Amino acid sequence: MSSVPVTTWSLEQTSPADLLPAAAPDGEVRIVRAEVPSPEFSRFLYASVGGDIHWTDRLGWTYARWQEYLERPGVETWVAYDHGTPAGYVELEPQDEGVVEIVYFGLIPAFRGRRIGGHLLAQGTARAWDLAERWPGRTPTKRVWLHTCSKDGEFAMDNYQRRGFKLFDTRVELESDVAAPGPWPGAYPA
């Protein structure tokens, strides 16, 4: 199997004032927290958003592993709905000392290019900043961070920077060159 170089960029905000808003998209877009941990729904979002951009690390997770992860205090999934249909999501994971990672963020391919991504990222980042208000006993958020890579969508880095995220680390590593799995065979045009 061949290998390809993959660049990973890590970005952060260190104050809620760093967050830059995005214009609301046209239409009927709502962003709602999925408050009931649902491995089925979370796996659907993961596979549907990441299927064409090589998200593979969670495809082998068992139902029990999904459930255990989703039930961790402070883990939150915020879903964008366009006219009632899931369009994308932001997954937040609190870490030690007031740090919150945006672990996953993205849109289902059919909803890309409709100005939903900037709005979803801005709202998801705001929810990272106020996460402790929903989880008594958590340290207030002092830093929000995420990473993106050269396999992600072509507008990902621009979106993060337009929302006020600043680059703090860049790494290049060789990874196996595998085909994008898609949420199911034939889901995306070649």
Automatic annotation (TrEMBL):
Single Gene Ontology MF annotation: acyltransferase activity
Gene3D superfamilies in alphabetical order: 3.40.630.30
SUPFAM superfamilies tied to this protein: Acyl-CoA N-acyltransferases (Nat)
PROSITE patterns on file: GNAT (PS51186)
InterPro entries: Acyl_CoA_acyltransferase, GNAT_dom
CDD domains documented for this protein: NAT_SF
Domain N-acetyltransferase intervals: 29-190
Pfam family, one: Acetyltransf_1
Entry keyword set: Acyltransferase, Transferase
Transmembrane region(s): none
EC number: 2.3.-.-
Keyword set includes Transferase: yes
Record-given protein name: GNAT family N-acetyltransferase
